[in-house]
Amino acid sequence: MDISFVQFSDALDVNGVEEVPDLAPRSLRIRGVDFQSAVEILINDESAPSFVIVDRRTILVQVPEGQSFSIIRDVSVLSSEFTATVRSKVEFKFGRDPKKIKGLQVMMQTFLKTLFTTPGFDVFAKQVGGGALQIIGGHLDVKNNAPLVAGLAVSISRAVAQIRAFQARQTNIPDNERLLSAEPSGLRYDPATTAVVARVELVSQAGVRAIANLEL
User: What is 102-215's CATH topology?
Assistant: First the structure.
């Protein structure tokens, strides 16, 4: 049974954000298209302590204490639903209610787990692992990040080859969980956040495409 240890969510469309006057603690009114599936709100990349869905298109949210006197630069409303599009977000953490997953989410979770496993870490399969964590955790030359980006691309190729070899020996894996390919795009180093940003498009044997947006 596959239990989710990667949290998947989509960023919902936000049309406008405004301060709520004369309300303490500091709060914002967020307007959008449909917030009914909202489960978390990030303000300047920090999770809001509480929010209320006033109606389908409006949310009132409390600003995190750490952002009480900050300029609001970014607001993201995350959904409990997952479509694996360019607006999707993936995080390595157990959700509040871990549950069994299948299909596209199994394929993506298998890929991410393999990509970030360090070879030798698994005593039963020491050769398995894309080794991405070793690359990310190594020395970074901010003036020349090409080796880092190239190394991550190699890790992705290694992970794909290992997954396909393993799945080829299994007969009970459905096509929508079998990885066909993974193509990285937009691999870059962001000096503002000191993070490596990557977008990887996964394709299953069933022809279904998924996009993993990573910030490492």
Answer: Nuclear Transport Factor 2; Chain: A, (3.10.450)
